[in-house]
Amino acid sequence: MKGTYFITLLAVAVLGLGHLNAYADTDNLFSQVTRQAARAALKEQNNYRQILLNRFLRYTTYDSQSSEKEQITAVQIETAKKLFDEIQSFGLNVTLTPHYYIYVEIPSNVKEDVPTLGFSSHYDVTPDNPASGIKARKIENYDGKPIVLENGQVIDPAKENGAYLSTQIGKTIVTSDGTTILSADDKAGVSIMMTMLQTLAQNPNRKHGKIQVVFAPNEDVGRAAEFIEETPYNPDIAFDFDGGVDGEVVIGNFNAEQVIITVQGHPGHQSHAAENGYLNAWFPACVLGARLCPEETEGVVLPLPNHSTGKQGYAELHHIDYPDNTPSVAKLDFRLRGFVQADLDAWKDQMYAAIPEIENNYGVTISVEVRRNYGNVGEAIHPEAMKITRRAFAKADVTPNFKEERAGTTASMFLIKMGKGAFTIFTGQNNPHAFTEWLSEEDMYKSYLISLNLIDEVAALKQNR
């Protein structure tokens, strides 16, 4: 606007202000310049929109499936190197770590001391279904009818897997051919982040604070944060781009812990139980398991999974193992889930209180190992996060759909290592991990605009306080 105003003043000086026609000419010139600026901005906006879609289509051709059985797959490594090279071509400072995290840091170009902003997404795709040789199918001006894919796969607006299609009539969507997944989870997020980075690189005058971006492997096998400490990623305010559609923002999720209890008994034949006190591990392990996960749930801090709904968490005795097939040692594997960390801690207090009694009654020794899998981002979020999210969405003309998930996110895994939470932003992905997976191009583009708006909002935080 300042540039437009300057051109208008220059026109005024040239034309003179001696009569009313001069004012009229100036107004006309101002309107003309304003329209030209608007057209130029729209052209640039549409240019990045096309870049974003083309980038996503290209990324679907990158094999990057993770595996439960491998530390990292060869196809993930290949994809990581391609993304690294592409970011280097933008002229940005990028690092590829020994375990193939891609880390980008952009220094602040504002004088004010504003919070560091972080963005994340993951480039691996699920091992649950075929994801090699993906043939993406772009459908422009979608007509509202069921979409028939190969292998008898159908995305039907009248059914759950295609319900959101009814909002996409006349718009562009992308599906697979039905023989593989589409991999929009999370190549949509990666495409958004890469296009955002390209936008910043090509527009160096755009104001922003310090920005950190990380692309993680192995998210779809629960290991996105396994080696995150190889990067300096530790922003004050963070957002993960790996969500669904229609303005969805995940602002809370389960805390998750694995509690492994080892009951150490004594070898012996059960025919001598009367003499040796039946000092194997099986029976006392069962007693402890029943004590910690009772069927009657009244007064229980974390009930069984089948009694847990809504905002309530649960405790599950996932399985019992017998190392080396000996009855003298039993391992109980408990899974704790809850939106409130204090509930998980209260359950563990009950566990620790019960252990001495079991040890004394059955002559066994019990040890405990607690592994924290992920945390509720809502319990560790920056105080300004909700405010800037609302403003960023409003500027993109998107209504935020805030939700809390009875599961985890990449951001919740990062929280364990960094102690800070992040909201997860929609990216346009539908039916993730399925043959009927599809992408809303419009939602992906809106998410890209929101990423830029978040940058603007964080850069302005100092002035807004």
Question: Explain this structure to me?
Answer:
The chain is an alpha+beta fold. It folds into three domains: 2-48; 60-248 and 378-464, Aminopeptidase; 255-374, Alpha-Beta Plaits (2-Layer Sandwich). It is 36% helix and 20% strand. It has helices spanning 2-15, 20-59, 74-89, 184-202, 273-276, 282-292, 341-362, 385-395, 410-418, 441-459, 461-464, and strands spanning 94-96, 102-106, 117-122, 137-139, 147-148, 154-155, 173-175, 211-216, 237-243, 248-253, 255-264, 314-321, 329-338, 365-374, 401-405, 423-426, 429-430, 438-440. The strands form four sheets. An eight-stranded mixed sheet has the order 1-2-8-3-9-16-10-15, with helices on both faces. Mean pLDDT is 90; it is low at 1-20.
CATH superfamily of the largest domain: Zn peptidases
Largest sheet, in brief, is: 8 strands, mixed
Q: How confident is the prediction overall: mean pLDDT?
A: 90
The quaternary structure here is: single chain
Element layout with pairings:
Layout lengths: L1 H14 L4 H40 L14 H16 L4 E3 L5 E5 L10 E6 L14 E3 L7 E2 L5 E2 L17 E3 L8 H19 L8 E6 L20 E7 L4 E6 L1 E10 L8 H4 L5 H11 L21 E8 L7 E10 L2 H22 L2 E10 L10 H11 L5 E5 L4 H9 L4 E4 L2 E2 L7 E3 H19 L1 H4 L1
Parallel strand pairs: 3-8, 3-9, 9-16, 10-15
Antiparallel strand pairs: 1-2, 2-8, 4-7, 5-6, 7-18, 10-16, 11-13, 11-14, 12-13, 17-18
Helix pairs in contact: 1-2, 2-4, 4-10, 6-7, 8-10
